[in-house]
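Please fill in the sequence for the structure shown.

STRUCTURE ENCODING:
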């Protein structure tokens, strides 16, 4: 996404779990978008958050999990939740489980946007949804979408029979009728929205220490059916994300804010967990919707601070896993590898050592990457993995004092002086740390275009080994002073 706002801020409570987190307060009003498939719920969601965050396609059933974004209409700010299309299917089926997720979204909601397709008019399924909503105490604002032109006039009139008052006729695709939507929402959530009008500072305005105090942005990535959603549900202690035996259930990248109690210290720490769609080999991804899901997952990696690559213990490490890991490293993210389904792994010790060796061989960009055996079924290894995620974020965010950095640099040059190609010396003068997250360094000198790649690797490996940047990507840029006599 860039996902800075797209992943929203749902908060969840642990119940009957080996973790002990509590429900964090969400001050912004929560508004749920509900309707049958293909009435334009995700298009409306994207319109309200001001970005194309939810996947949108002509085929019904694209959205499967709840997705949260920060919305604003005329300075009325609220959290808006996109939900799966409401279908009348068996509770055990995938559409039935999607409906259960939608029903769960109503808990704690401040308002519902009940969306119908005004061109299609009120259908029997719309009437069923209306009956269900009348059994809840959540205020309902009726929304007649696709109301541009005159084709939706009759459908708009039909909505009065559902018993939710005057509808807001809109066109989510073209941005029409947002003023009418505001008029419908303001009496319901306006007072609470005014109380929550304070906007927190962006990450660009925060110091390194303040960034570390922010919730850890942790993305779970991997191939389809590795158990990403199941693992997150285990952490949360509830069925927050849709799971099942079908591969590729997750399509959108979904974030859940959560509080985790570190058993080692007793501290309660905030985490934003990001579930992503499974990433198959590129040649196997042919459908438009899956391509969109994979692109969405890649943007989730951009948003994250730490990425957990989840492997399936029954399948081991495959080339596709290394490609996903390389993508995360190239984006400068801190990376952890977790082997899921450890409770059913065969020859576990040999498997663990084999995967560690393959990672060291296949990912030469980083060494000493944290590797954990976990089980989404039993909860094994989850606390250790999360503790390591906070530690590696600190490393990823670390800044080395200039004096210590240049003392290391001088020692490195003495131990292994730069080469002198064709008898001409390459002079490396000093080094500075240009940034963090990931750590970035600039080396100043002359004739740097002649410096061999092997010597650059020597410097990068030294920074990792001697300055404590093991297991995180390190960037080194070479910079020569401008020649005042050189013509432009």
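FILLED IN BY: designer on duty
SEQUENCE:
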């Amino acid at each position: 996404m860039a996902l800075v706002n797209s992943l929203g801020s749902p908060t969840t409570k642990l119940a009957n779990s080996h973790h002990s987190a509590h429900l964090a307060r969400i001050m912004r009003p929560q508004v749920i978008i509900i309707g049958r498939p293909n009435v334009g719920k995700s298009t409306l969601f994207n319109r309200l958050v001001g970005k194309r965050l939810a996947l949108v396609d002509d085929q019904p059933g694209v959205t499967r999990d709840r997705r949260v974004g920060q919305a604003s209409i005329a300075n009325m700010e609220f959290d808006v939740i996109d939900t799966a299309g409401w279908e009348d299917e068996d509770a055990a089926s995938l559409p039935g489980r999607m409906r259960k997720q939608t029903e769960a979204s109503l808990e704690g909601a401040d308002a519902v946007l009940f969306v119908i397709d005004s061109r299609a008019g009120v259908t029997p399924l719309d009437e069923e949804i209306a009956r269900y909503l009348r059994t809840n105490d959540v205020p309902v604002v009726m929304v007649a979408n696709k109301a541009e032109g005159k084709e939706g006039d009759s459908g708009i009139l039909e909505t009065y029979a559902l018993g939710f008052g005057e509808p807001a006729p809109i066109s989510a695709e073209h941005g029409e009728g947002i003023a009418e939507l505001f008029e419908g929402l303001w009496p319901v959530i306006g007072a609470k929205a005014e109380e929550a009008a304070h906007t927190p500072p962006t990450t660009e305005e925060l110091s390194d220490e303040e960034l570390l105090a922010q919730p850890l942005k942790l993305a779970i990535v991997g191939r389809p059916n590795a158990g990403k959603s199941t693992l997150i549900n285990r952490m949360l202690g509830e069925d927050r994300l849709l799971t099942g035996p079908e591969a590729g259930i997750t399509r959108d990248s979904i974030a859940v804010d959560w509080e985790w109690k570190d058993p080692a210290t007793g501290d309660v720490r905030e985490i934003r967990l990001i579930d992503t769609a499974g990433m198959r080999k590129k040649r196997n991804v042919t459908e438009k919707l899956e391509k969109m899901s994979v692109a969405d997952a890649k943007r989730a990696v951009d948003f994250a601070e730490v990425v957990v690559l989840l492997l399936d213990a029954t399948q081991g490490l495959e080339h596709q896993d290394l490609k996903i890991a390389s993508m995360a490293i190239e984006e400068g993210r801190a990376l952890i590898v977790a082997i899921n389904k450890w409770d059913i792994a065969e020859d576990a010790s040999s498997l663990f050592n084999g995967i560690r060796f393959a990672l060291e061989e296949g990912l030469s960009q980083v060494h000493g990457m944290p590797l954990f055996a976990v089980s989404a079924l039993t909860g094994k290894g989850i606390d250790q993995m999360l503790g390591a995620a906070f530690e590696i974020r600190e490393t990823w965010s670390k800044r080395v004092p200039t004096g210590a950095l240049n003392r290391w640099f001088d020692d490195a040059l003495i131990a292994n002086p730069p080469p002198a190609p064709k008898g001409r010396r390459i002079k490396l003068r000093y080094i500075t740390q240009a940034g963090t997250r990931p750590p970035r360094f600039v080396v100043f000198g002359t004739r740097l275009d002649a410096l061999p790649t092997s010597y650059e690797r020597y410097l990068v490996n030294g920074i990792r080994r001697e300055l404590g940047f093991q297991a995180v990507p390190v960037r080194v840029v070479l910079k020569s002073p401008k020649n005042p006599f050189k013509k432009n």
